[in-house]
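Q&A log
Question type: sequence-to-structure
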Amino acid sequence: MTTPIRQTLEDLLAAPEPETRPAGPGLRLIFSSGQAHHDVLPVRTTVELGRNLPGLPRPDVQLSQRHASVKREGGQWVITDHASRNGTFVDGERIQHELRSARARVLRAGQTVFLLEEECSPHPEPLEQTEDTVIGPRLRAVWSEVIRASRTARTLVLGGETGVGKEVAARVYHDHGPRKAGPFVAVNCAAIPPGIAERLLFGARRGAFSGATSDADGYVQAAEGGTLFLDEIAELDLTMQAKLLRLLEAREVLPVGASRPRVVDVSICAATHQDLRGLVMAGRFRADLFYRLVRPTVVIPPLRERPEDVPALVVRALRRVDSGLFAHASLMEVVLQRPWPGNVRELNSEISNAGERALAAGRQLVTAENLPAGAGTALTRAAVREEAPLSAVPDREVIAETLRQSAGNVSRCARLLGIHRTQLRRWMERYDIRTTRTGTEDVVVTGTHQT
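Response status: OK
Response body:
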């Protein structure tokens, strides 16, 4: 059940800060038996995982009574499977008795999924859901910054990758500011044709151009008394940036064809996924607008930096398709291993499609097989069939880098690339890419063969 975003965020901001204790190695329990969850098991000595594990929302019948154990030793995770009936999986691979790894990240036992974290707070902040988003520990701090800015600043810049939820943050800014009773007007600057940008933003007077038979307000006037959200502000050309600077400094707008400016009362929230400072250095963004606009700036973290939010987002996306759909732990395991460059937007789309595929097959349980191979992977690692033509082969450096990120694990690398491991081995042979083990670490070694 979700609650209104304003009430939830105000409650979060007003709540006392949780007791802080030194963080250390721990298991973050994030999913069990079809439900998103949020609990922490500190790994001080050895943690035993089994059916009676404390903190489970309900018993996981696929866990053995004594399923597995986890400890830290010599800077590595040591995960031991105790001959469990359904196996123990680390980063998608079933372990054979024991695994030692410094890079292990996702642990699945039965229908329960954990994150392995070197620095894990022993007392997690609550995981909240609102009408628009899921608020985990990392996002809570960001939302608090946005709310503080709404009360003290008439402008705010939101940074972050595509799909992280910048418009949701802009609405939070609006809903908690002094102009919350006014309109919220969202404008995608990248979609405005340059030739008509001025009149769309600032309006026009009758007779200003051919066909202008009456006065027309622009987006700025439409946001009077409220908030104007300028998404992808870096896409505005330099001329429009100069006119926007006047709006910010004088709080007035001059419609096309008008002789006198009009004072407006608006809050301005701008968003971009680009590096504005870099654009200034390249001459593509005005320095005066940059210095006037960028304080305060709040950056929304990408989904890969807040994996604890993922299960709740997946469960929500499935229930929006059909209230009877529920996720298998294998689906959650795969989702957590992919980078999701399109962030929450991409995740919602792909999980919804996976749910529809399961329903079309007459099932309400959504598994990893319902998720396309390329979903959540970088565009340069597009999914291809096992027998893909050589023209579809990823770049040699892409394969090598993905192997490095996978610590030389071919199966894990194949999943990230969205291909079958047999096909990946063929391409490794073609490019003369090899993996060798040095001590306890897997190191990628690339040959000199170029084709």
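Response note: The two ends are 55 Å apart (CA to CA).
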